[in-house]
Write a structure and sequence with these properties.
The protein has a domain of about 55 residues: Up-down Bundle (Udp N-acetylglucosamine O-acyltransferase, Domain 2), CATH 1.20.1180.10. It is an alpha/beta fold. About 20% of the residues lie in helices and about 25% in strands. The protein is globular, with a radius of gyration of 19 Å. The strands form five sheets. It has a seven-stranded mixed beta sheet with strand order 7-10-13-16-19-21-22, with no helix packed on it. The chain has a six-stranded mixed beta sheet with strand order 1-8-11-14-17-20, with no helix packed on it. Strands 6-9-12-15-18 form a five-stranded parallel beta sheet, with no helix packed on it. It is built from four helices and 22 strands.
């Protein structure tokens, strides 16, 4: 487990432990030695870390963000991410681009957070749980199931609240695209159709819209189930 309070700016090409080439990797996390305490834990010394991949413009609050080294895979953090104080990234987690992970969020091992997702403070993710792109998770959400792309979720255990319309607008989606996503949400989550029937309707009525196709693909690949 590594404190990313002082992240080296030295980046280089490297390999994850599964043999795949990573785009960029933080060459070393420089940690200042400190006395053990109930706040900081055991003393830490400078030592290099491999196989924990971080992209451009990764920002974390000083001495506050913890990223675990992988277990047979790769812990990956993409570009333009912002991790606030106390965030905890478990082993083998996959973080996309342009995410915000607020204070004291906890991601268990193998969790996945897709691009433009926002996790409110104290959000917790179960092992292998997935958060789709442009999800807005309210503070204190506990996600034991997958959070569908473009959704707002809240609660313990988290339930679907609605469509993240503000997030779509901020990403610059056209009115037509937003309308198709909204229609897909209605068919899948509000129409009371069986899931496969709803997804078939979405394919027929909103097929060809890349964002809708990604939504459908995400739901069809779920292994844990998803918030409704």
């Amino acid at each position: 487990m590594w404190n990313l309070g002082r992240v080296s700016k030295s980046l280089r090409m490297s390999l994850c432990s599964d043999g795949r080439e990573s785009a960029r990797i933080v060459e070393s996390f420089h940690m200042r030695a400190s006395e053990p305490s109930h706040k900081t834990g055991p003393s830490m010394v400078n030592r290099p870390v491999s196989r924990s991949v971080s992209g451009h413009k990764f920002e974390s609050r000083s001495r506050s963000t913890w990223v675990h080294r992988p277990v047979g895979g790769c812990t990956r953090i993409g570009d333009d991410n912002y991790l606030m104080n106390g965030a905890h990234i478990g082993h083998d987690c996959q973080i996309g681009n342009n995410t915000i992970i607020a204070s004291f969020c906890g991601l268990a091992g193998h969790a996945k957070v897709d691009d433009f997702a926002v996790l409110g403070a104290y959000t917790g993710l179960h092992q292998h749980a997935r958060v789709g792109e442009s999800v807005m998770a309210a503070g204190g959400s506990k996600l034991s199931l997958d959070a569908p792309p473009f959704a707002m979720v809240a609660g313990d255990r988290a339930r679907l609240v609605g469509l993240n319309s503000v997030g779509l607008h901020r990403r610059g989606f056209s009115a037509a695209t937003c309308s198709q996503i909204k229609h897909a949400f209605h068919l899948i989550f509000r129409s009371k159709l069986r899931l496969e029937d709803a997804l078939t309707r979405v394919d027929q009525e909103a097929g060809g819209v890349p964002e809708v196709e990604r939504l459908v693909s995400f739901l069809r690949k779920t292994e844990r189930g998803f918030c409704r």
